[in-house]
Each structure stands twice: as structure tokens, then as C-alpha cells.
Design brief:
Length: about 120
């Protein structure tokens, strides 16, 4: 059974940093893309970052220049480094993984597996 488990969320002040981690189990995702989405209260889920099997990143405009996505294939993990956090970054953050080869990494429809989410709260 595939599981994606996020960790690293919490409460930080505006301007601070957090690094989210996602550990995958049940199968390896070395050959597939992985990513992150988020959902703020009362808002639709927003896909914010993806990374190809080769390490090529995609970042949504809302986080470009502040967030960095990376992966460790040996550990079957993906990370999201978040700097310059703003109150509007407050959301539940979800890890995602592709289950088969796909052309893209930038849309939620490109992903087959999702984690349960971790809360990130930014205070002003």
C-alpha cells in the first residue's frame, strides 16, 4: 500500500522559514515526478511545486523565488524548503507522487498519490 507522509509543518512568524518533508513507502518513486500542493481555509487546492524524476523543478508563480523543491531518490523523499513565509502561505500542505510516467509535473491531474497533509501557519 502506497503511503505519503508529510512532516515539518508548524507555526512560524512572517519572514521565517520551514522545510517540509514527505516520505514515500509502498513503492519507489525514483522514476516518477513528485510534488506539493496546498489548500488554504475556504480556498481551492493550489498546486505549487513539482519535480521531475531527473530533478527539474516547477514552481507556481505564487511561490517562485521563495520556495525550493528537491528530492532524495535514495530515501524516496521529496522536500519543500519555504523561505520568506507570508501569512497568505497559511494552508495545509500535501505531498504528491506520480504512479506512472507522465509528460507533465505542473498540474494536480499529473499525480496519482496524495498524502494526508501537514498544517503550516504563518503569523503576522
Amino acid at each position: 500500500q502506497v503511503q505519503l507522509v508529510e512532516s515539518g509543518g508548524g507555526l512560524v512568524q512572517a519572514g521565517g522559514s520551514l522545510t517540509l518533508s514527505c516520505a514515500a513507502s509502498g513503492r519507489t518513486f525514483t522514476a516518477y515526478g513528485m510534488g506539493w500542493s496546498r489548500q488554504a481555509p475556504g480556498m481551492e487546492r493550489e498546486f505549487i511545486a513539482g519535480i521531475s524524476r531527473g530533478g527539474v523543478p516547477y514552481l507556481a508563480d505564487s511561490v517562485k523565488g521563495r520556495f525550493t523543491i528537491s528530492r532524495d531518490n535514495a530515501k524516496n523523499m521529496v522536500f519543500l524548503r519555504m523561505d520568506g513565509l507570508k501569512p497568505e502561505d497559511t494552508a495545509v500542505y500535501y505531498c504528491a507522487a506520480q504512479g506512472r510516467l507522465r509528460i507533465g509535473i505542473a498540474r494536480p491531474e499529473d499525480y496519482d498519490y496524495w498524502g494526508q497533509g501537514t498544517q503550516v501557519t504563518i503569523s503576522s
